[in-house]
Specification:
mainly beta; two-stranded antiparallel sheet; single chain; 11% helix; 3 helices
């Protein structure tokens, strides 16, 4: 979890100051009421009773206001309001077209949060967290046809309560980050705002382009029947574990280790082990987790969502298993750092969302079976990400981090029916092999005095895709390389 449930930030102060202000308000209000009464006609001998009623009503209203105010000390609640703004320029070149959009950075989207905590004793506390995300066009949502994807929506990221014990750990209930949330994001170089392991978040919604077809017709955007559009994010679907309606347990930290487990939805459960420790000038942090998803939906990490031919029927037999984790190391003296992440996913069950295209009931699927392709589960997905760089304080304003990154995903779309413009009918009926590679560079500059980060990064996407047509003809999809450039700033408050 990115933020410990037991540490929700500094408390609001000034309870004694508010009490003094309230008392002053009472005195001023009563004085004003008395002055008003002096100016009234002398005929009201019972005005003193009205004056008493006025102040009694004012006292009651002030008492109600004080009772509803968040407090500190021995009062019930300590409250914080925080968040950040993270806006950027996204420039892309898909092999033919180029454009620039203003977007929010999906690596860490615009958000604000309300967090409260009450402490029962030195050992026990309880609290809540509500976090809202601003649904602005993002680096993960825009494509060649629109710079306004998801514009105008407001999403609830977290809505949870927790009880925490220093000796026994904490229990969280609500829409919350599961145990394996951000398990692939450990990076002591603090560069995730510009380049992170969840590579679908930066330019992932852009369509791939067929190198042999010009113009918009060359975009692999076909979404019809059982065919899905071939976007870059298809190669790396759902690498991180998103918020879910769960119950979660986090153990106390013991010798740098912490254990987490969560369960919820219908059904999803995961466990994770995290570690962080300093060894002199060397810092190490990392985690590993296991996720099992058996949600009874029409798709679960299957044919990707978004109106691109999702299987419409679920028999409740969907099983997706992830083993994933990350680790990072930093030399405090030199500023050299490295980070790596890994995801291995396997599919089981009979739902179409975890099956290859040969299991579908369509003439093309029947032709694929006749060509010797058996109905089976989709092959395992393997993904690896590495980053290395240097983070030092070259300027008084804050530390600067330079980094290079590489990612590779294998079999992310293998077994599917995907859009390829130059193929017969505009689609490659069965992908037999697929691989995506990413190379990137970036820089992040910290401005300590403003709780601000300035960043810029560049990524190069390439893919190798081969498969078979319904006619039995084997072919290689001619996918153009793509480039994405990001530059922006995140300011925390």
């Amino acid at each position: 979890m990115r933020h410990s449930m037991a540490r929700l930030g500094p408390t609001l102060t000034g309870a004694s100051h508010r009490t003094a202000l309230a008392a002053s308000a009472r005195r001023v209000a009563c004085g004003l009421a008395a002055l008003a009464l002096v100016s009234l006609p002398a005929a009201g001998a019972d005005l003193s009773g009205n004056f008493g009623d006025c102040c009694a009503d004012l006292e009651e209203r002030i008492a109600e206001l004080e009772a509803s105010t968040a407090r500190r000390g021995n009062r019930p609640l300590a409250l914080t309001v925080s968040g950040h703004i993270n806006e950027a320029l996204l420039a892309w070149h898909d092999g033919e077209d180029t454009d620039v959009y203003v977007v929010t950075n999906a690596h860490s989207t615009d958000r604000f949060r309300f967090a409260g905590r009450a402490r029962f004793s030195s050992n026990l506390s309880a609290g809540f967290r509500i976090e809202l995300g601003l649904g602005l066009p993002s680096t993960a949502g825009v494509d060649q046809f629109s710079d306004d994807r998801s514009f105008g929506s407001l999403s609830v990221r977290y809505a949870l309560w927790y009880v925490s014990s220093r000796r026994l750990g904490s229990v969280t209930v609500g829409q919350a980050p599961p145990a394996t949330d951000d398990i692939i994001a450990y990076n002591l170089g603090h560069t995730n705002v510009a380049g992170a392991a969840d590579t679908a978040l930066l330019g992932g919604n852009l369509f791939t382009r067929d190198a042999t077809v010009a113009g918009n017709a060359g975009l692999n955007s076909l979404s019809s029947g059982n065919t899905i559009s071939l976007r870059w994010r298809r190669f790396v679907p759902g690498l991180d574990t998103g918020p879910a309606n769960i119950v979660r347990y986090d153990s106390p930290i013991l010798h740098g280790f912490a254990l987490s487990a969560s369960w919820g939805e219908d059904d999803q459960w995961d466990v994770a082990l995290r570690f962080a420790r300093d060894f002199g000038r060397i810092r190490i942090a990392g985690g590993i987790g296991y996720l099992e998803n058996r949600e009874e939906e029409a798709f679960t990490f299957g044919w990707p969502s978004g109106g691109d031919g999702d299987p419409a029927v679920s028999t409740g037999d969907t099983i997706v298993r992830d083993v994933k984790g990350s680790a990072s190391i930093l030399d405090e003296h030199t500023g050299l750092f490295a980070a790596a992440a890994y995801v291995h996913r396997s599919y089981a069950g009979s739902d179409l969302g975890v099956s290859n295209f040969a299991c579908f009931a369509s003439p093309d699927a029947a032709a694929i079976r006749a060509a010797g392709i058996a109905c089976a589960n989709r092959p395992d997905l393997d993904y690896v990400y590495v980053q290395a760089g240097l983070r030092r304080k070259f300027m008084p304003v804050g530390k600067t981090a330079f980094f290079a990154e590489y990612a590779q995903a294998r079999d992310g779309i293998t077994g599917l029916n995907v859009a390829v413009s130059s193929a017969v009918g505009g689609d490659l009926d069965f992908v037999t092999d697929s691989r995506m590679e990413i190379w990137g560079l970036g820089v992040v500059q910290r401005i300590d005095a403003a709780a601000m980060e300035l960043y810029a990064s560049w990524r190069h996407f390439s893919a190798d895709v081969s498969g078979i047509e319904a006619s039995g003809v084997r072919r290689i999809a001619p996918i153009e390389d793509a480039h994405v450039f990001l530059a922006g700033s995140r300011i925390r408050f």
